[in-house]
Design goal:
Elements (H helix, E strand, L loop, with lengths): L10 E9 L4 E8 L5 E7 L6 E3 L5 E3 L2 H11 L7 H17 L4 E3 H15 L1 H11 L5 H14 L5
Parallel strand pairs: 4-6
Antiparallel strand pairs: 1-2, 2-3, 4-5
Length: 155
């Protein structure tokens, strides 16, 4: 592992811990050359299915893109970064467990909506406004009516 401070290749592991539901290993390392400490994270490289977009394009599943979309929906809401990471982890796990080579962006969006409804109703509405392409106040009213009807009002 290359040291981020001096770029030396030699380091030793001081501590290892499981992180994020056991899907990641966090290692605390010390550079043999400059003796500075740094943290690395190791994840299993899972083969994710392709995402079929509405315009029929296909692209690789992108965890970072999902994080950004959910962060935008939760901006200025009382939702912790840890809660956001857990949502992304659950959506990613859902996509993996489908066991298919291709998944529609719509099914990913639906899953994100369900997760956000349980977490924060306003964040879910923000996400829905983009995902479902809301055009007017009536779209929001119908969304909140359906939220109340299913009892998934979140916060």
């Amino acid at each position: 592992m290359r040291c981020p401070y001096c770029a030396d290749e030699g380091s030793r592991v001081i501590d290892s811990r499981l992180a994020r539901d056991g899907a990641e290993i966090r290692r605390r390392r010390e550079c043999i050359e400059c003796e500075r400490r740094f943290t690395t994270r190791e994840r299993v490289d899972d083969v994710m299915p392709k995402v079929a977009k509405r315009d029929e394009r296909r692209e690789d599943f992108n965890r970072e893109k999902l994080i950004v979309a959910i962060q935008k929906a939760c901006e200025k809401r009382p939702v912790s970064t840890d809660a956001l990471e857990k949502v992304v982890d659950r959506v990613e796990r859902y996509v993996q467990e489908l066991g298919v080579k291709e998944v529609s962006s719509g099914s990913i969006g639906d899953r994100v909506m369900e997760e956000l409804k349980a977490l924060d109703a306003l964040a879910a509405a923000r996400f829905a406004s983009v995902f479902r392409n809301f055009q007017d106040a009536g779209d929001y009213a119908r969304f909140f009516d359906s939220l109340r009807a299913t009892g998934g009002a979140g916060r």
